[in-house]
Design a protein that fits this description.
The chain is an alpha+beta fold and about 475 residues long. It is built from 15 helices and twelve strands. Strand 2 and strand 3 form a beta hairpin.
Amino acid sequence: MVSGPFDYGPATCHVGADKRRVNNSIAAHSRTTRSGADNPSAASLGAEDAYLISDGSIREDFKQYNEGRKLVLRYQTPRRPYGLSEYPNPPGIESDDKALSKEEIELTRTALVYHDRYISDHTPGPVEAKVDLTVVDNISGGVGAGTQILLCKVEDTQYDGDTEICNNGKMQSDSSIRHFFNDTARRVKQACDAILSPWRQDAENAGDAGPSEDQKQEKSVLSERPTLIGDRLVLGQLVVVKVYDAMFYPGGMHQGLWKATSIADQEHSREAGTYSHLWTENKTGKLQITPQFYGSWAIELTTVNQQVSQKKRFARSIMIEHVKGRPEMADGTEFIFDEDFRLGVLQRLIDGYVNLLHVGVWLRIDPEDVLLTGKDGDVLLDKPRVVLIDYVNARIDSQFKKPNNIYQPWKMPPHPFGEFSMEKMIHFSGWYNHLWTTHHFDRWMKQVFGQLDDPRYTSPMVSKAFIDEIGTEDTGLPA
């Protein structure tokens, strides 16, 4: 839960000329091509109603995420990643859409979310799937905390008309067996091009203006009907749901003029995009550094606020593997954290990271985003699996305005010696000996990863030569 003051914005009504100005602007805003004249969810909120809506229902609405509550999710292809300088804006999204207008500053959080909810609305896309979940625990989150991280149990799944219902944790059909396995050929066929296409949602958001050249180009990529990106769920399975619900994002001065609805949408686009990309590259799940990915979903939500006439709304989310572990190994397994153990963990973390670089993904590694688990399902492991759990600020090279394609052409991942140093790993001091000098760290790196010409990796003399040629600033990679 978040501590300290929390401010959703003004909850009082101004009168006179200001009120007329705001109402007129909101009404005009609902008619823009950005929300679409035919989009009922964006235009249905009357100007007068939007201006008068209070935030008094927020804490009651948050109870939809409480333990025991039921959630209905529908599959939704994520937008292409955006919100970082390396990424272009997706079709239908302009830079001005990310910031509060003068009129929107006057709105409460509830009014803004319902007025701007076309951003998260579920739009039927090329893949139809529906999942029913029960909340088991709220792992992280709260009112004003930003993303909500929920542990949920799968009760029912519908993939393209194939329905399975959970009965006391047991499957009613054996169709989940064929869902559970995903062959490489199917992943490669659909690939990550699917995440480039906003599909109908961006076409509708564009209103009567017709498809842009970007939209035409992106839709042509998917000339064939794509399949769902992400592994299929098994009934009775525990899964982690990360919800990007703008209603419960922080507000106040520290957010500046950035719009909470846009921040939530951007964060979802980047994290869902990264997981989608890694899934298609077979870099998620079983003993990988990235948790298994089960797709991008829109959660059906409502409100008890009597001032909102059309109460149904959606929030974007992703579903990922429930890693049965915590940073302190509180999953029932026991290991002796001596130096050999700690260095082994660091070795697997570094090796996993360079394999992400090899498929064009890089991110900052922070200790709080690293989990250790001693189990693979119910099977005890001899060595703990190392898992990275936060990809909201990861970069996908292929989605850049100007992709660099540095590591992808090489047969093997880059040698860790060229990517890591003791200075870069300073926050992990203690996992390596805190008395070590740079010489000690470098010597250990070559001992465990081999010399620079080790056949398991691409020599840094090769990959770094390319980076030096084009310049670090141009690559977007950390210096």
